[in-house]
Amino acid sequence: MTGKSVTRRGFVAGGALAAGLLGLAGCNAAGGTDGATKGSGYKETDSGNGYTIVDNGDGKQLSYSPDSGLKLIEKDGYAFKDFEGTGELVPYEDWRLSAEERADDLAGRLTIEQIAGLMCFSAHVFTLEDDNSVTDVQKEFLDGNVRAVLNAASGYAAYRQATWSNLMQAYVEASGNKIPVNFSSDPRNGKNCTDWPGNLALAATFDPAVAKQTGAGIAREMREMGVTTFLGPQVDVATDPRWQRFSGTFGEDPALSRDMTRALVDGLQSTVDEKGEDLGWGTGSLVSMVKHWPAEGPGEGGREAHTEGGKYAVYPSDGFEACMIPFVDGAFKLDGKTGSAAAIMTSYTIAYDEDMKYGELVGSGFSKYKVQELLREKFGFAGSACTDWAVLNDVQPDGAKSYRCWGVEGGDWTPAKRASKAVSVGVDQMGGCNDPTLLVSAFEDMKAELGEEKATENFRASAKRLLLGYFNTGIFEDPYVDPDVAKSDIDKGNDEVAAAALDAQVKGIVMLKNAGGVIKKAAGSDKPKAYVPMRFVAASRKAGTMDTAPWKDSAATCGLPLSKGTLEKYFDVVTDTLADALTGPADDKGNATPAEADLTRLTAADIADCDLVLVCAAAPNNASPRAARTEAGDYVPLSVQYRPYTADADVVRKASLAGDPADGSCWADHETAKGVAIENRSYFGKTSQITNEGQLDQILEAAALAKEAGKPCVVILDITQPMCVHEFESEVDAILVSMSGSTEAACRIVAGQDEPSGLLPMQMPKDMVAVEAQLEDASRDMDCYVDAEGNTYDFAYGLNWSGVIDDERVKTYKVAPLTKPEA
C-alpha cells in the first residue's frame, strides 16, 4: 500500500496534554481501565483511498477520514477516536472495553431522536451514482440519524460498493452524530460475489461443515464491500412444497434446518485467525439477522406473505412449535464463540387460529405473543429484533408504495401508530423505514402509557441491543474498506475460493435417476459429446412480485440454457439453430423476438455421433407465484407440474381456513375471531396458471429424439422447490436437480468429473393430489413419487455412481421429524 506515513509518538502536548489527562481521569472513573496494557505509540498511514489507517501495534486498528474533522485521543500509548469531540476518552470510545460496556455507555448518552434513527432500517438502496457519491436522499436519512442502510446495489461491482460505503462513512463521521453506518445485504447468490450454494443446495449436502465454510466465505466478501449485517439466513421450515420462498430455506426437516442454521450462522459471525481458531466477534464477523420469526412457511395454499393473498399462516396439524426449531435450537444455540445469532427478523404472516392461541391476528412484528412472550420471555433471545420491510406503510391500491401491514391495514391505523405497536411488543427496528419521526411518535405513545422514565428505559434498551452489532463487528474503530481489495478479491475473483465454492455446489446436486448407470466416472480425459437443445420460452403474462406491482407481458426467448463457455468446459457441444431474422412480435422496446418456427432442431441423424442428449430444464413457473391470483383477483391453485392442473379433488378445501373479516375491517379491530364471518379464499375448481408448459414438451421431444438415435437422455432440473416429475420421468434415462442455479455443478457430474453425493432436503410429490393432501405446517407428510426404477423420491434420498446412498447422513436425519424445540 502506498501513501504518506506519519509516526505519532508523544502525540499530546500543551493544551492537548491537559485534555488527554482529563480524558484519562474520566476514563478511569467511568470505564475502569486502570492497569491496562501499555502501547508503544501508533502510526498513521494514508490509505491512498481517501481515509487514514491508524496502526495501534497490539491494539485495534483504526481508520478515519482526514477531512471529517474527527480527532484522535492518545492514552496509554494507544490511539482512540474522539467521537464526542471533547478530548476526553469516554467508555464507548475505548476499544479495550467489552462491546456490552461500550453499547451500554453510548445508549445512555443518545437523545431519543438519535435512538429513533437507530431504530430505522433504510429502504433498499438499489442504485449508485456514477461517481458512487452520497445522494441527497441518502444525506436526508443520514442527517435524521438513520444508520442501518440496506445495500441492495448488488448489480454494481464490489469495488464500487466499497467506494460508496467509504463515502457514506465519511459523511456521517463529519456530522454531529458520528455513529458509523451499519450496511446490510440480502443473500446475493453469486451476483457480483462468489457463487456459494444457496440455502436449499446447502441443505442438500446434509453436511453442516459445508454450510459453515459457505458462511465464512460470504462474510469475508461482504466485509470487503463494507457490509456488516447479513439479512439471513432464512431458516423457516419449508413445510409446503408450493411456497415460492422454499428455495431460501434449508428444506422441510426441522432437525436438518436446525443444524444447517447453526453452522451457517457460526460461519457468518465468527472471526477466525490464520489457524482457523474461532475468536468470536471481530472485524471478520458479519451480524446474522435470521429470518423470519417464528415462521413464514405455512402460508395457506402455499401463498407467500409479501402479498395480501398470502398473509395468513395456518396450522392444521398443530405444527407451530416445530417451525421454531431452527431458531430456538439452532440460531440461538451456536457452537461458536458468538453464542447466538445477533439479530432476528419477524415474519409478515398472521398466524391464524379462530381461538387466537397464537395471539392477536396481526403480523408477527405487531404480535405481543410472538415477540414479547415467546421470543423475549420464553426463549430468552437477547439480540435485536427487526420487522420485515414495509410493515408500517399504509395500503396503497394505486401501487405507489409497498405495504405489508397485515392485521392493522385499515381503520385509524397510521404508520406512526403501527410503529408504536411494534415497539410496544419488543421490536427494536423497523425494516424499510427512512422516517425516524415515526419512532419519536412511538416514544411519545409509550411515554403517555408507561411514563417517561419507563419509555426512556425501553428505548435505551433497544439502542443497546442495536449498538452491540456495531461494536461487535469493530466498525466504530475501522469502518473503512479498501476498494482495491474488493476489486482484486471479488470482482477479479480468487481461483482458490471459486474452486471451493464450485466444489460446495457440486455437493448440493442430487441425482434422482441413473438408469443403466449412464452417469459414471469419466474413463479418460476426452470430453463427451452432448446435444444440448436450445430452450424456447413462449411469451407470457406474469404478476409482479408484490401486490403493488402490475402484471406484465414477458416476451418470448430462445437460446442455450447455460452459457456456451460453461458447457464447453465439460462437453463437446452441438445445439440447434436459431434464425438470424426473428419473426416473433416486437417486445416493449421494439426489439424482434423469436417465434418457435425460427428454431430448427437437430435430427436423430445429426446427433448420431453424440454421447448423450442433455436437457437443462426450468421448473414449472406459476404466473402469480406469491399471491396465486388471476389478474382479476380470483384465487387459483399454485402448481408444481407443467400441465394445467384443476383443483377439484376431494382433498381440496372448499372453504379456506383463514381470511379477512367479511365486513372489510382489519383484525386489530376485533378482540376475538370467534364468530367473526370471514371471506372464503378457496380455489376449489379453479385451474393453475403455468407460464412454461412448453418446457415439458421440449423434455419429451428431446427424450423421443434420444431414443430414436439410441442415445441416453439426461435432464438437469433447475428447481427452487419440490416439483412433479411424473410427467416425464419414465421417458428419460437420468435426472439431476440443482437447487441454487448452479447447473455448471450438475454438468461436472454428468461429465463424470465428480461423483454425486447430494440428498433431497425435501420430498418430491407423487402428483398434485398428493400436494393438496399434505398440510401446510407439517414436515414430510406427503405421498412421494416412485420412479420406473422403483426408487422413492423421499427426504434424504439420492444416488451416487453405486446406487442409492445410505450413509451416516441418511441414518442421522431420516428419522421421525421433530415436533417441538428442545429448549
From TrEMBL:
Domain Glycoside hydrolase family 3 C-terminal span(s) in chain numbering: 691-800
Signal peptide extent: 1-29
Enzymatic reactions: Hydrolysis of terminal, non-reducing beta-D-glucosyl residues with release of beta-D-glucose
Alphabetical UniProt keywords: Glycosidase, Hydrolase, Signal
Keyword DNA repair tagged: no
GO molecular function, one term: hydrolase activity
InterPro entries, sorted: Cellulose_Degrad_GH3 (IPR051915), GH (IPR017853), Glyco_hydro_3_C (IPR002772), Glyco_hydro_3_C_sf (IPR036881), Glyco_hydro_3_N (IPR001764), Glyco_hydro_3_N_sf (IPR036962), TAT_signal (IPR006311)
Domain Glycoside hydrolase family 3 N-terminal residues, every copy: 133-445
Enzyme Commission no: 3.2.1.21
Group of enzyme by EC: hydrolase
Similarity comment text for this entry: Belongs to the glycosyl hydrolase 3 family.
Protein known as: beta-glucosidase
Organism annotation: Paratractidigestivibacter faecalis
